[in-house]
Amino acid sequence: MTEAVRIAVAGARLIGQRHVEAIAFARGATLACIVDPTEAARAYADGLGAIWYPTLAAMFEARAADGVILATPNQMHVENGLECVAAGVPAIVEKPVAIDVSGGEKLVAAGEAAGVPLLVGHHRRHNQLIQKAQEMIGGGALGTIIAAHAMCWFYKPDDYFDIPWRRQAGAGPVFLNLIHDIDLLRCLCGEIETAQALESNAVRDNPVEETAAILLRFANGALGTVNVSDTIVAPWSWELTARENPAYPPTGEACYLIGGTHGSLELPSLKLWRHRDRRSWWEPIDATVLPVGIEDPLIRQVRQFAAVIRGEEAPLAPAREGLETLRVIEAVKRSARTGEIVRIGEKSIIDKKSMI
Description:
356 residues; six-stranded parallel beta sheet; ten-stranded mixed beta sheet; Rossmann fold; 11 helices; Dihydrodipicolinate Reductase, domain 2
């Protein structure tokens, strides 16, 4: 039997603790240590019976791990990721891979040049229902993809904003939450070519956005609409529909709709709508719900990370994919500031009239 891969978790707050729990259930992996300078993290490690290190440097010096999951604050992702590359230790960098595209480019380039695997924590790519949806779309079950719609409505309670940084620019639902949804739209519908967005902070009046409406054009010609808000009481968000995280009460609703010339798909229910015979709005249309496994995608992510470290598999979510998703988010934010249509990956802004 292959010896378990030793995985360190850097950052021992909520998401770091979720990774620790996932490692405990992932075959082929074991928790190596906790890396976090705080006394609370040290006490947490003691409670687990785990080794504790205050810094990545101390952990690398001890050669305590074969891989690292970086669940540190967003602002530290590039710095910590570069430390892992310098030490030759593969890492999963929690999303976002960086706080801006330039930092993400630096990190991704360093990992690729050194041949050190860097993955991004877009764990939804490991969800079995997403993989099934990719299989269906790739196999032509929907025909040619024409349009997609994503809903991301939920209500963050007032005390959530008692922490000052959550009221500041860069901490809104576009950057913190929607980045996962944009990543899945890229997985399911292809690369995104342009973005146009409006934002609002009309309810709380904080410097950060609380609502955004976004129009996307995919490279294959499909169009997408996305609506996100953290100030709406509603059941339509991935967290409240996908049953990934037991912290969120499931609603059974749909949050993504993907439409094609031969059928449409609801997610996360995997409900496929198609006409029985002739395609026509005059003809009966039926829905089929496809069976799929429900294993925790965080566990699947850890298990795949261990396989990457052993050299058995290529990363399912390499850091470069996180960078490409970040480019879209940056374009959305720039469009919201300027009112223009922004081409992904280009600094220049397209005049609206040129798209009519």
